Amino acid sequence: TEYNWDDTLVKKAMLKRAKKVVIVADSSKHNRIAAFLITPLEKINILVTDREPSSPLKEALKKLNIKIIVA
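User: That's the sequence. What structure does it adopt?
Assistant: Structure tokens below.
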């Protein structure tokens, strides 16, 4: 999700062209919802983050076959 409408439009345009969707988000973004949806979880292939997501989020990502990379 995103708070800025212009940034949302740019990100959506990039996602339309992407063959694979990789989200890079630090743990402060886990379980937060902003004003604008960029893409549903089902469209994400990989999440790169600094900490393991909480159990409910981690399970949801696993069910959708989203690879989690903690770096």
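The beta strands are 22-24, 46-49, 67-70.
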